[in-house]
UniProtKB/TrEMBL annotation:
The keyword Signal applies. It comes from the Bacteria. Residues 1-29 form the signal peptide. Keywords: Hydrolase, Magnesium, Metal-binding, Signal. PANTHER family: PHOSPHATASE RV3661-RELATED, PHOSPHOSERINE PHOSPHATASE. Pfam families: HAD. This is Haloacid dehalogenase-like hydrolase. InterPro entries: HAD-like_SerB (IPR050582), HAD-like_sf (IPR036412), HAD_sf (IPR023214).
């Protein structure tokens, strides 16, 4: 064999090995249900849990009807800083309705909204925020409110990323939702946000239909208007689906105790406790820890929105998985 022949043979062998490796790597990438997750402990924990509960004839097997997974929304599935998206919506609604309410110019917390005084608005606390929500969300039918929400989401832009809010969902969590559903799970959103604020868009964005959304609500009443049946939204609180309210909402809307729960803040503490601290079958709890100031935000114990303090301490005691967004996610948002 000449030197030239040897070199040709060696080159051919090298190309063949490279092609084989490319095929193997490509196949692995295609088979990876969570490609936006780094190969760190949280991804391993997710896959291990799913494999345990879906393997028939194993002691940890869970029948499909009982495979219920619940997800918080704000800060778990999409951004919640610099403020909750629904609050941004409510502030815009107050500004739009202000000409019909001249008294708001001298009445807090509306005065703070109209003047852009976020410090005073924050100081008004939960009571002030609820007053704003009532003013922005009541006094119309459910159908009218749904259209207003859809129109706002189509035009509103996040102040930092300059994108629609529905594009600022977390790609790793979209993959997780798909992965669970592909393995026989039914996925629910259980959020402190308004149930009728979320229902118009969750199916398109998350693949979660309206009937699988649990959230806070205001009271509605049935009315006949010009011969047409309508549900009219009243300026009264019906249910707050946050903190201890989340297990109540799960019980009332879903009727089954979840086997997996995903959150990011102290508002999700009781939901994770309700899901995981029950004995019986294998249970899974996960918290998203916002640690990536460059790609998103970094916050936990000292923030007005999405405080992660008590729940972070509880995670260590209860062996919940904590996702370090900076270390565990290859990408944060979907690529458009």
């Amino acid at each position: 064999m000449t030197t030239c022949d040897f070199l040709k043979l060696a080159r051919g062998a090298a190309l063949g090995i490279a092609a084989s490796l490319f095929i193997v790597v490509s196949a692995q990438a295609q088979n990876d249900p969570l490609p936006s997750w780094n190969d760190t402990a949280p991804k391993t924990a997710i896959v291990s849990f799913v494999e345990k509960v879906t393997k028939e004839n194993s002691p940890d097997f869970v029948p499909e009807p009982e495979r219920i997974a619940v997800f918080d929304n704000d800060g778990t599935l999409w951004v919640e800083h610099p403020m909750y998206t629904q609050l941004a919506f409510a502030l815009d609604r107050v500004k739009a309705e202000a000409p019909s309410h001249p008294e708001w110019k001298d009445t807090q917390p509306f005065k703070a909204v109209l003047e852009g005084d976020m410090k005073t608005l924050a100081a008004s606390g939960e009571k002030g925020l609820m007053e704003i929500m009532m003013a922005a969300h009541a006094g119309m039918t459910s159908d009218e409110f749904q259209k207003i929400v859809s129109d706002w989401l189509a035009t509103a832009r996040d102040p930092k990323f300059k994108k629609p809010y529905t594009e600022l969902v977390y790609q790793p969590m979209l993959e997780l939702l798909d992965y669970l559903r592909a393995n026989g799970f039914k996925t629910f959103i259980v959020s402190g946000g308004g149930i009728e604020f979320m229902r118009p868009w969750t199916e398109q964005v998350y693949g979660v239909p309206p009937e699988q959304v649990v959230g806070s609500s205001i009271k509605t009443q049935f009315e006949m208007r010009d011969g047409t049946p309508s549900l009219f939204r009243l300026p009264q609180i019906n249910f707050i689906d946050d903190k201890a309210g989340k297990p109540v909402g799960i019980n009332e809307h879903i009727g089954r105790r979840p086997i997996a729960a995903f959150g990011n803040s102290d508002g999700d503490l009781e939901m994770l406790q309700w899901t995981t601290m029950t004995g019986g079958s294998v249970r899974f709890g996960m918290l998203i820890h916002h640690t990536d100031a460059e790609r998103e935000y970094a916050y936990d114990r000292d923030t007005e929105f999405g405080r992660l303090d008590k729940a972070l301490d509880a995670a260590a005691l209860n062996q919940w998985t904590v996702v370090d967004m900076k270390a565990d996610w290859k990408q944060v948002f979907p690529e458009k």
